[in-house]
């Protein structure tokens, strides 16, 4: 051991103190007697921690795009995509839980379900997938409802990206710029034309071009996460209904068709 290593922390902050590990590591309380429930809890808690960081980065990136401060926004969006990769690989661990093992803990979960995650809902809203019905699972908690309502009412990352294009002299349809941002985004031919202008002359619009690619990276990672979620659920519970009452695998399969930034995908055919 290094002779200069500090060993006495009776008067100084230690690693565990800084990370508040006593609180973090005492937050797992399995309700069943089954050995495998700890895996289920830790996987979801760590995913929520990654989502906390993702929201932190997404909200800052949106603010930077709105302020025309793109270099830090690019860094933040790149980090969000890397976080999503971590969330994709988290399913690999949960997939080690077999159907009998999950069946042993399922009765103890009640009606709790991942779709009730308020952080995940804020991420979906920040990315533009707005659904008013998804406010309802949070109505029992005024603080969480306020957080989700704020995300629901705010312009999404894509809304701010399109406003940025307009400020940089790229024509974006007025009805898109003035749309109700609480509604799901609908693809518009005029927006496709705007992105085509950027992608046909990337050297003239390099920042906008890079922003477009950052958005594609993010959606690409999001699609992988959704697909891995689907396959893990099908592997563990088959086609049973979800604990929260959703259609389970069929619900998740329908979510695969969600497109967050549609024109950034359709321009690939037009180029």
Mind explaining what this structure looks like?
This protein is mostly helical. The chain contains 13 helices and no strands. Helix 3 runs parallel beside helix 6, helix 4 packs parallel to helix 11 and helix 11 (206-237) packs antiparallel against helix 12 (249-255). The longest helix is centred in the last third of the chain and has 32 residues, at 206-237. The model has no long low-confidence stretch (mean pLDDT 94).
Summarize the structure.
Helix content is 62%, strand content 0%. The mean pLDDT is 94. It is built from 13 helices and no strands.
Give the helix level as a range of percent: 55-70%
The gross shape turns out to be: globular
Helical stretch tally: 13
N-C termini distance: 60 Å
Mean pLDDT: 94
Give, in order, the helices and strands: HHHHHHHHHHHHH
SS-derived structural category: mainly alpha
Q: Strand count, sense and closure of the main sheet?
A: none
Work out the radius of gyration: 21 Å
Low-pLDDT residue intervals, each spanning 5 or more residues: none
- Give the percentage of residues in beta strands: under 5%
How many strands appear in the DSSP assignment? 0
């Amino acid at each position: 051991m290094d002779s200069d290593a500090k060993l006495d922390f009776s008067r100084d902050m230690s690693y565990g103190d800084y990370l508040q590990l006593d609180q973090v590591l005492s937050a797992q309380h399995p309700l069943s007697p089954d050995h495998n429930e700890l895996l289920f809890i830790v996987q979801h808690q760590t995913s929520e921690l990654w989502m906390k960081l993702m929201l932190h980065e997404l909200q800052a990136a949106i603010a930077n795009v709105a302020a025309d401060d793109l270099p830090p926004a690019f860094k933040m969006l790149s980090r969000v995509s890397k976080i999503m990769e971590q969330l994709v690989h988290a399913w690999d661990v949960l997939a080690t839980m077999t159907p009998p093992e999950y069946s042993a803990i399922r009765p103890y979960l009640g009606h709790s379900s991942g779709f009730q995650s308020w952080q995940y809902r804020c991420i979906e809203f920040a990315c533009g997938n707005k659904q008013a019905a998804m406010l309802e699972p949070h109505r029992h908690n005024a603080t969480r409802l306020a957080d989700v309502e704020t995300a629901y009412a705010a312009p999404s990352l894509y809304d701010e990206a399109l406003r940025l294009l307009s400020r940089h002299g790229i024509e974006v349809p007025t009805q898109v710029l003035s749309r109700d941002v609480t509604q799901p985004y609908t693809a518009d031919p005029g927006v496709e034309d705007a992105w085509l202008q950027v992608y046909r002359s990337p050297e003239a619009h390099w920042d906008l071009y890079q922003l477009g690619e950052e958005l594609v990276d993010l959606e690409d990672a999001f699609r992988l996460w959704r697909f891995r979620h689907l396959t893990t659920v099908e592997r563990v519970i088959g086609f049973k209904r979800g604990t929260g009452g959703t259609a389970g695998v069929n619900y998740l399969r329908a979510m695969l068709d969600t497109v967050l930034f549609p024109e950034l995908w359709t321009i690939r055919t037009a180029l």
